[in-house]
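User: I'm designing a mutation panel for Carbohydrate sulfotransferase and want to avoid disrupting the core. Could you give me a predicted structure to guide residue selection? Please restate the sequence first so the numbering is unambiguous.

Assistant: Good idea. Sequence first, for numbering, then the predicted structure tokens:
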Amino acid sequence: YRRLHTKETQLSKFNQTEIKAMLGSYTKVLFVRDPLHRLIATFLQGMGVSPSFSSFVQEVLDSGMHNGSVAWKPLVSLCRPCLIQYDYVVMFGFLRQELGHLLRRAGLPAGSLLPELTDSQVQWTYRWLTEQMFSELSAQQKQQLSRFYRWDLAAFPFSSSFLSE
């Protein structure tokens, strides 16, 4: 696209005609992850100053939708899946098979470019960790988180998410 190399990188900086032309000229890939897993990863990376996961979650809930960090904002507010027709949605936990498919579709040799991904081990570890962290939350926090991420849970197949239960 002709304005690809400008300093403007956010779609909101372009007019509707330019946005449509740009989005039509790219293969659009969206990487998604269970919202609770995103919160846990953010907490473990020390992006919150809270001493416990429960107090970190309360900070997230108190910050609300508009003042929150990109690290924990609902995905639908960040990548607009209802407005942008993504060509691929890649779920965390299925990276090896989905990235292999994407590379083959792009005409690249998938085997040599992919790092060693152990999705089943990652899923098991996250399931255990999620159970531990989720048990720290009050019933009210669990309900508030489910409400906070309701559009993510509706837009993407996070069927095994603790927030869906």
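For picking mutation sites, this is relevant: The mean pLDDT is 81. The beta strands are 29-32, 88-91.
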